[in-house]
Specification:
By secondary structure, the chain is an alpha/beta fold. It contains 9 helices and 14 strands. Bound molecules: adenosine-2'-5'-diphosphate.
């Protein structure tokens, strides 16, 4: 791919929750888009999406969709990515894929620009965007790892329904409306009612009893941090929140890090907003962080139950930094380091 003044950008899954944010963020950050190609299923072909004041017609995704496309942003699920990402690469595009399809492939960089921007240049056509819960975790923990070396992470997530997609957001609204009208909830996307409930079940269960989402947090953290010695144990929970994932995180470090030292490091860290003043009831919450770009960190405390431990509360907008924004930041790094593009 040659350096261009303007790039043709395809968005696969253009009618979905994440891709809608991608299109907005491309415009907001003035990404040099010459033409935007919105792609989705036959169901929404002919619908329009708005970009730079124009209504663009959504086209049905097909094998020929990627002619003259420079960058293809995928967010239509792993099955679509597995099939169509290689087709897009063959047509000459660089794919930035938001699904889990390619993340653990050794030839595919998995990048959070604040942590491992340099990996982006190693791509062979596909760059993977990490899982939303992992992105916010590594943005907040990398500065602490660099100084104190994290040995173990214990994380419990409180993940919003937008992480599942648009249908799940509608389901939360409909169930809430039904239950408040004394009607029964009728779950469809989730196995149980999500309104007024918590589901300790995200993605499929594995024979070990962990879910795939929980294992993503281990495997992707190691790959992005470039450190297979970090131990991670996760419990991932879906909660009735529309946007923003929250995480209760306990870390054990090799070298002692006080809460004040951690606060000083995070105050300077790229992509992090330190939001930690309990005396004034200042701590991150989804209702405040939704729509923001930074990863918010608060409730930083020393864990006195071990020699070198810290507790943190980490909240980020899962549609923005957890998905769309991170993908666009990868695209920005890609065009900035153009000599390394294929
Ligand atoms: P469509 O709206 O036509 O179904 P979300 O993550 O919010 O659930 O959105 C998923 C996105 O993936 C939507 O844009 C959806 O398009 C798209 N999608 C789902 N299945 C396909 C498919 N078979 N081909 C192309 N796009 C698909």
């Amino acid at each position: 791919m040659k350096h261009k003044e303007l790039y043709t950008v395809a968005v696969v899954g253009a009618t979905g929750a994440v891709a809608t944010e991608m299109i907005e963020i491309l415009e907001e950050r003035k990404f040099p888009v010459g033409a935007l190609v919105p792609l989705a299923s036959a169901r929404s072909a002919g619908d329009t999406v708005s970009f730079q004041g124009q209504d663009l017609t959504v086209q049905e995704l097909a094998e020929h969709s990627f002619a003259r496309v420079d960058i293809a942003l995928f967010s239509a699920g792993a099955e679509i990515s597995r099939k169509f990402a290689p087709i897009a690469v063959k047509a000459g595009a660089v794919v930035i894929d938001n699904s889990a399809a390619w993340r653990m492939d050794k030839t595919v960089p998995l990048s959070v620009p604040e942590v491992n921007k340099a990996d982006i240049a190693k791509h062979q056509g596909i760059i993977a965007n990490p899982n939303c819960s992992t992105i916010q975790l590594v943005v907040a923990l990398k500065p602490l790892h660099t100084v104190a070396h994290i040995k173990r992470i214990v994380v419990t997530t409180f993940q919003s329904v937008s992480g599942t997609g648009k249908e799940a957001m509608d389901e939360l609204l409909e169930e809430s409306r039904d239950l408040l009208s004394f009607k029964e909830a009728s779950p469809n996307v989730y196995p149980y009612q999500i309104a007024f409930n918590c589901l300790p079940h995200i993605d499929d269960f594995l024979p070990t009893g962990y879910t795939k989402e929980e294992m993503k947090m281990l495997n992707e953290t190691r790959k992005i941090m470039g450190d297979d010695s970090i131990h991670v144990t996760a419990t991932t929970v879906r909660v009735p929140v529309y946007v923003c994932h929250s995480e209760s995180v306990n870390i054990e470090t090799q070298n002692k890090l006080t809460a004040d030292e951690a606060r000083a490091l995070l105050a300077e860290a790229p992509g992090v907003m330190l939001y930690d003043d309990p005396a004034h009831k200042i701590y991150p919450m989804p209702i405040d962080v939704a729509g923001k770009d930074d990863v918010y960190v608060g409730r930083i405390r020393e864990d006195d139950s071990i020699a070198n431990g810290l507790n943190l509360w980490i909240v980020a907008d899962n549609l923005r930094k957890g998905a769309a924004l991170n993908a666009i930041q990868i695209a920005e790094a890609l065009i900035a380091g153009r000599s390394s593009l294929n």
